[in-house]
Amino acid sequence: MVTITNGKPPVLVIVQLTGGNDFMNTLIPYTSGLYHDVRPVVGVSEDRVLPINDELAFHPCAAPLKEMFDDGDVAIIQGIGYENSNRSHFRAMDIMHTAEPNSIATEGWLAQALREIDPDTKNVLTGISFGRGLPRAMAAPGVSVTSVGDLDSYGLLTSVEIEEHRARELDIFKRMYTPAIGSGPVMSYLHQTGGDVMTGADLLKTVPANYRSTVEYADNPIAKSLRDVARVHTSGLGTRIFYTQHAGYDHHAIEVPNHERLLTELSGALRDFMADLREHDAAEEVMIYVFTEFGRRIADNGSGTDHGSGGGAFIVGERVVGGLYSDYPSLDPADWANGEDLAHTIDFRSIYATLLEQWMSVDSSEIVRGKYEQINPFAA
Amino acid sequence: MTTVAHPADTDIDLLGHLYRRAGFGATREQLESYAKLSYEDTVEALLNPDPKRDIQDDVLERYIHGEGPPIFVAGWLYRMINSEAQLQEKMTLFWHHVFATGLVKNEHVLAAKNQIKMFRRNGMGDMTTILNDLSRDPAMLFWLDNNENRNGEPNENYGRELLELFSLGVGNYSELDIKDASRAFTGWTFEQPPPLYPHGYYPAKFLFREDDHDNGEKTFLGVTGNLNGGDIIDIIVKSPASARFICRHLYNFFVADEPQVPSWNDVPPLDPEGIAMMEAKFIETGGDIRSVLRVMFNSDFFKAARYKKVKSPTEFIVGVLKMVGSQTEMAPGMTKYAGAIDVMGQKLLDPPTVEGWHTGGEWIDGGNLTERVNFAVDEIGEGLAPGIQALVQRIKDSESLGSAESLVNAVLTETGYVEVSDRTREALIDFANDAEGEDQTTRVIRMLRLAVATPEYQFA
Hints:
Structural class of chain B: mainly alpha
Number of strands of chain A: 12
CATH topology of the largest domain in chain A: Alkaline Phosphatase, subunit A
Structural class of chain A: alpha/beta
Largest sheet of chain B: 2 strands, antiparallel
Strand content of chain B: under 5%
Largest interface: A-B, 47 and 46 residues
Distance between the termini of chain A: 7 Å
Number of domains of chain A: 2
Strand content of chain A: 5-15%
Mean pLDDT of chain A: 94
Number of helices of chain A: 10
Shape of chain A: globular
Low-confidence stretches of chain A: none
Order of helices and strands of chain A: EEHEEHEHHEEHHHHEHEEEEH
Number of helices of chain B: 25
Radius of gyration of chain B: 24 Å
Radius of gyration of chain A: 21 Å
Strand order of the largest sheet of chain B: 1-2
Largest sheet of chain A: 9 strands, mixed
Helix content of chain B: 55-70%
Mean pLDDT of chain B: 92
Oligomer: heterodimer
């Protein structure tokens, strides 16, 4: 367990790369002849990459991430996955969200952690998800998570333009959703949910006006979401788990320009986010976990790459011990999964257990259903 | 007994209930015109739509065309909003819930479309045909790997789900039944269509490969012989377990929220007598869905079950759009509503699992409640849409503006929610009083916005 010197409770920020990030083109085995042979189209040439050692290099568009790595703020989890990696986006993401590869589970791993952290939902903002629709990772019965599409216009009845009208209508809404005895379990739950939304909105509406920063984020969805995280976190509303998503990583076709754009957006947003937190003296207590649902096929298909396995994840923060964790998946064809995919070298549940136990101080055994060997990425 | 010139209001409320369940809702004005028919005749008309009056695919596709899933969903929503065959569309959605097939795996939009068309075509037919067509449907065969179910190398995915999730339910078969049912479906596959790129979508066609079919002896639910897939289906439909399973599904979808499917082996139905009534008809008719629906909709338990179901996102959105009246013409703009359903937690053509969507209270969390309320309020907006203008006019014409109480009654009646809690009614009356000094049109529109934001509006 880590002791945070400023005494603030630890915060976890999730960045989900939706679609299956191409790990092999994020952390590139640039001196492997095989890499260049099987990826004639999407492969990045040796003279463009950003090496971190004699074998591995960051993609050139991930320069900000490379700088953070050089500063010791990035732990790279190489070869993350699980046995019989599923190639369906939906199912694979579901597995990541529920930490259950073998059967269909419904409770999200982070929602279960929230249940431990704030069992009586004393704060409806303990868990916040940015983006429309709640990811299953943050969903479980009895766990209230605030789902924010747009922080600047968050709340109910937002299309009502006349502010005086809206205020009066919200007042009526609040009355209609006040819990009433004897209204039945579903109606009670609905009342509770409506009330939580109102409470969350009242708290969050103060955020934009109170935030000042010299950091100028780029104009893209992940930068916007991480800026929203920074704005809420620096407001001190007590949020412990933030969820954000960066979509578009499903590169079956025309991978080169699209992946370049996404890596540029992602790594720039992470750098700006950390800078923003530092400016507010609010960085030490924050840990970021960047993950995706699977890696991609080793060989390209002439335009992009198909669904594969053996992906990569990143833990980013001031208190992380930067470096490489686990092993890069073997490039020897004899070791490949399904004869064509990178074989995983560490189970994703090891990382969940590590983050939950060592960073969040939450018992992980029920959430990941068992004991998984943890890594030690945090400075004591 | 004298004949009344127009049916009593209670009948119209009951018709409203029927149309929220057997269809996607109706305006008060529509209900008044439907009330020329008796309740039973209305049920009969819904059960037997005139195919000649149905919306034709070729006409629809002239206006809403393209190959992406949201475009197909848009066309489907158009049907839900505008089709006279409301129950036929509702049953199409019902079978999509039960036989939940994910486009995400096959990524073949045409196969998904054809499966939905199949549900529209035979969704109120007999269970034997429904299961036979399902077992020949390329989207389903691929979704559950039956194309890999081969003589000597059975793949049990389809066999298992056919029994567990599509017809019998856990506890009504053994692992050996799954093995032999799967063997009976060996060789049930499809002809591989030409690749999408650059050829575009070609339909996948069912193919029975005799040379890949296991002709050995099998035993299924106590029947032994060289059973083929069709024999398995005959045995399933004759089994009382399938009668119960399908009737519970229909009850959960049309009458009142039941516990979720995986618990059905342990948790008895909420209304055992109602289910028993439906089951008896299922068994008597050999699985005729139309007959079971007729019993259900005409039953007292159905009539009494008003506002007992949380609307699915699809029901919610289509209900709002029907009231607003903005989507009565075929137009490409419909695709945005496919995305709106998605963020409320129901991505049509991509159910979360083969088990389909969990229903009832599980539709609701803080995020999608916000989406629902904001969607409905936004669609009413400043009241410019034709349906809302008509509602406002009717409320003004009804001479109910005299008191806050009568105005609230009129607004709730027009939006279909005659039964609300005292708390909701009192809040709305206070609002109506406060807004008394306003221009009457604005006042009514603001009332309508609140009427769709009530907790009660989340229920059908």
